[in-house]
Amino acid sequence: MTKFFKLLMAVLSVMIISCSKNTFITVSHINDIESQKTAQGFYYALPQTIVNVEITVIKTDFEPGPFAKYADKYLSLEEVETDPFSHYSIGKIKTSTSAKPDKDHIYFINYNPKKKYSNLSLDYTEEGLLKSVNFISRISEDNNSRTESIKIDEKLKKGSFFYFLDNKMVEKIDTIYEEVLIDSLVIQRRRLSKSFVEKSSEARAKEVAEKIFNIRDKRYALISGFSEIPYSKETIKFMNDELNIIEQRFLELFTGITTISIIKYKFEYIPSEKESLPFELCKFSENAGVIGKSSKNGKPISIEILRNNKIEHHINNSNTQNGIVYRTPEECEIRLLHGNQVITENKFLISQFGYTKRLPSGNFEIIFYPETGAIRSINQIQ
User: Fold this and answer.
1) What is the Cβ-side half-sphere exposure of residue 139, based on CA atoms within 13 angstroms?
2) Upstream peptide bond of 66 is cis (omega within 30 degrees of 0)
3) Residues 72-83, buried b or exposed e (16+ Cβ, 10 A)?
4) Is 0.70 surpassed by the pTM of this model?
5) Based on the structure, what is the number of domains in the chain?
6) For residue 19, is it within any domain?
7) Residue 322 belongs to what domain range?
8) What is the mean pLDDT, run by run of 10 residues, along the chain of 382 residues?
């Protein structure tokens, strides 16, 4: 009987030790610990996904040349624009996601200093999101960003008109005849009067046109071999390019200057089941660019999220408080609309549309994706 009792006590001791090792820590939602003022432990938050939208708008400003109305007369350039205008168009669109703590999903890990927790270590992000449990980093972290990389061409043409004339004034010489009475004789005297007057717009336009034709003659002589000096191929190319640049600057006085500006607008949207979709971010007008949602002009730019609705049967309704709470995100299709037209669409993981579950009892080494709260890897510690 004594041997049987000792054997029974030994078996029970092994069972108790085994259970104590497999019993996981207690984790409660923050709303469930308000009454426990003396509770000790650690907080962590599950992430919620933020959709970041960057809209690149291309603004085109046109300034007519000061001699635009003489373009047809002196250069035979027809239909030259004579009025200034501004035009806006939508360029590249960059869509990405980021994460921040979800205020509705903050949890408390109850820590009792009198109890011993085997290998309990927690690793957080700067925002308070859980990165790992019982894991000591042995490798460098990789970049798990889901940003769609877009390279924007920013070859912009900016500048002012090239006024080559040193002086807008021209010397004017008038001949004045005076009649002078000397000893009953009338003598006619001639006098020259010099003055400076401003050149007329047409006179200046004519002068510019003459310089353009002169440059063209020089370019023709250069590339046709009529030059007196035998230049090298590289020299001829260099001089021809420079003459072409000067000619274009003179032509701008007739054809005008177009300036292209790149304007970037950034929007943040937090998907929520409570909001109706599509959600309007702003409005866009070809005459005014990006404008506020309250404006009566332009078409709305909206964001729309299409869910796959494949997670409802996974929702965990368990009331247990054992185990770390983690999140499994839902893959959604995110569309950006201009009016009713889809201008971009991408697939992203949305954390708050997913479901939460608890880790099973046991001693595990766990790594999470901080951006989504999902499990990246899990290993049982022996």
Assistant:
1) 4
2) no
3) eebbeeeebeee
4) no
5) 2
6) no
7) 24-58+88-156+261-380
8) 39 34 65 67 88 94 92 90 93 92 87 60 80 63 36 47 55 60 66 63 89 91 79 89 92 92 92 83 92 90 86 55 83 92 92 87 80 85 70
